[in-house]
Amino acid sequence: MTTYLLLAAGVAVPVSIAALVVLARAGRRVLVAALVALVVLVALTVVFDNVIVGSGVVAYDPTRILGLRVGVAPIEDFSYCVVAALALPALWVLLGRRRSEP
Fold first, then answer.
1. What is the Cα–Cα distance from 70 to 35, expressed in whole angstroms?
2. 2-6, 39-43, 65-69, 97-101: lowest mean pLDDT where?
3. d(CA 46, CA 42)
């Protein structure tokens, strides 16, 4: 049976590892900025996921979640914000313009 954790981990883990490598190679300043953004995004996700799950806007099949929750939001739901917070700046680094050195 496919679970939300299996689906999320199949993408979140390899993408996050690759993004962290790119960000680390880009320098400490870039990595720290991305990690600060990650903390802020996770904090916002805690608030808003609890609102939408608690109000019934979004529901999860209880047989397909791990069972760990932050408030009423399943832990699997946080994989999306983690990937976004790491992958977006990594893509910015990879696709950004190369500055010409003087």
1. 20
2. 97-101
3. 6
The CA-based angle 86-89-92, given to 5 degrees, is: 145
**Cα distance between residue 13 and residue 72, in whole Å:** 23
Give the pTM.
Answer: 0.81
For residue 43, give both structure tokens: 């904090």
DSSP code per residue over 22-65: HHHHH-HHHHHHHHHHHHHHHHHHHHHHHHHHHTTSS---GGGS
**Cβ contact 28:98 at 8 Å:** no
